[in-house]
């Protein structure tokens, strides 16, 4: 209400249109600018500066970073995070594309298929993580019960350091397929039908049409999904915390085999309360995300001009 | 001849999609069925419970603060959605329709905050919240999400497509600038607002990292934090049927809401590329 009166007030005094516009714009932007500076930008700078300090000591130091380079658990979490990316993103893209192509082909129940495959992406991550944890449970879980039924050797799944990361990845793929499918469906809609008609006249096979028309024209979609996938896997936390945390497991375990950068940050920052060291970890994360974003800007060459 | 072949191959495509659905939907089915099992039932192989056991649900409502967590999550998600729609609408409109010094810089500054990972921000937020006594309060959970840069970007894109004539006509009629935004401009971007609203609601409904850090008492937990801490703090072995009951109660209403709004949600996410 106050802003409305002010705007009306300004319209009554004679002044240049441009000045008036600027005053109104900054009235509208005043609170948002405070918010972004106070809750986003200053905290980022604070985290940076904090990463160069050690509790109980005055002045700046690179001690945290020196420690990080030789911290085995940290290196393990970086390697794991990269593994999550390498394992989950190509598979979820491939399956997402196949399902999108299949849905494009059928004439009936399109909407039904679309929702069904999208459900895992929509629902509560914590809730479905616990469902997967139960499925993986060596004694109560359905996977081992099926193996037992088929007289196959039972597995330890999440409790086996060799299988745990793959088990987490399987759930990540299950969750993300629907998202890739949806973005691929949007991408497929953008391909003009004339291209296929022309190819048909030339007698091209379906297989050839896919590799010569569909796939190249989906390239921006693939890049987009890869970038989103990279940013999401770099920050993966909730799934790991709920699949492995607690008294019946160990966060990021067993033997740190599932720990990610975010999980390690959480452990150092909010279990051991070494916020300075945790800040240094997040600075590394920040740099990694920055690199991915710059690659995206370069590849997609998308400019947000005003 | 040709149509017959197309029909047969279509049957295979349908079949393929149905096999996919079985894999995708199985965890949900397993979750619902498991919530009706008694604990000894879990040791036996079988999809269906031996006999329908609703003790898990009785336990959830009588012995845990599940309803409170649900209410907390709902209240927080609704509030943050409203602030985002209002602020992102106003900011996006300003950037799309006004010319002023510093416009480009502020827009880039706001957009660049999208790149900052939450993991990096939670540490300073935690320090701020401790200093200002915001730990374990609704405000403490909500304050970081009041405005999202993504929403600003989305709304600016949509307001750019709104023609200036109607706005200028209102100006000639002597309408105040704030009212022009609220009465004339906002109604023209309803589709974008509903997409942003749905995404914001879902994002906050599922938020985990910050709520788990900032809440300390059971009363203030959100639904994901409540389920998670109930599951991980169980020293006497995991009560699987209770956790599956909690998950079912969290997931099934969402699926129903999703089915009602499915076109909107799917369009919203395709439109915006999700988040």
UniProtKB/TrEMBL annotation, chain A:
Where are its TM segments located? Answer: 21-41, 82-103, 115-132, 164-188, 209-231, 277-297
Please state which protein family the record places this protein in: Belongs to the binding-protein-dependent transport system permease family.
One GO biological process term is: transmembrane transport
Name the InterPro entries for this protein. ABC_transporter_permease, MetI-like, MetI-like_sf
Report what the protein is called: Carbohydrate ABC transporter membrane protein 1 (CUT1 family)
Q: What is the protein's species of origin?
A: Pseudogracilibacillus auburnensis
Q: Which keywords belong to this entry?
A: Cell membrane, Membrane, Transmembrane, Transmembrane helix, Transport
Provide the taxonomic classification.
Bacteria, Bacillati, Bacillota, Bacilli, Bacillales
Which domain of life does this protein belong to? Bacteria
From TrEMBL, chain B:
Name its cellular compartments.
Answer: Cell membrane
Q: Which UniProt keywords apply?
A: Cell membrane, Membrane, Transmembrane, Transmembrane helix, Transport
Q: Name one GO cellular component term.
A: plasma membrane
Topological category with respect to the lipid bilayer: Multi-pass membrane protein
List, alphabetically, the Pfam families matched.
BPD_transp_1
Judging by the UniProt lineage, the source's domain of life is Bacteria
GO term, biological process aspect, one: transmembrane transport
Stretches of the chain forming a coiled coil according to its record: none
- ABC transmembrane type-1 domain mapped to chain residues: 70-261
Q: Does the keyword Transport apply?
A: yes
Q: Which family does it belong to?
A: Belongs to the binding-protein-dependent transport system permease family.
Q: What is this protein identified as?
A: Carbohydrate ABC transporter membrane protein 2 (CUT1 family)
Recorded source organism is Pseudogracilibacillus auburnensis
Its lineage opens with: Bacteria, Bacillati, Bacillota, Bacilli, Bacillales
